[in-house]
Design goal:
It is a single chain. It is built from seven helices and no strands. The longest helix is centred in the middle third of the chain and has 40 residues, at 74-113. α3 packs across α4 and α5 crosses α6 (119-132). It is mainly α. The radius of gyration is 38 Å and the shape is elongated. Among the domains are: 14-72; 92-132.
Amino acid sequence: MAEPDITTTAHRPSLALIGSQPEHASPHGRRYSPAEKESAYTVWKALARSLAKTSTTMGIARATLTDWHRDGAWASRADQEDQEAGDVFRDAYWTVLSGQVLPSILTAVEIRDNETVQPKDRLAAAQWLAGVAGLVPVKVPTAPPAPARSTAIDYSKMTDEELFCQRR
């Protein structure tokens, strides 16, 4: 009986379809499709960027993953994707936050100007408003430190008795 022709889609198992082009063959004969490589990248990124964990999880040789990692510049690609995701998050956060700025400022003004509010809270509101405006509030001055006592002894102002006691 003749072997079935597995090059046709009618008789080829689903795994044989994946990576059927010779340019995706590994040196050991296993062929991987671009979809499998992309899945490996996704798993690598999700598993704390560990080739060892990706190899164990996917059953792909670590050496193969190392080649894909290098050839596909996975590290720089992941960093770029992280940067883009961070930019999207910052933009969304700023959109939400910008709608909150004016009400927050108005609330702080109300606290600052309300004479029934505790003085420390009014001061905190005023300092916060100054900070929003880019000003650094001045700290409340304290009493200057006491002058340091001189440890030098002025012998010229001592009596004979004091000088005698100093010699001992």
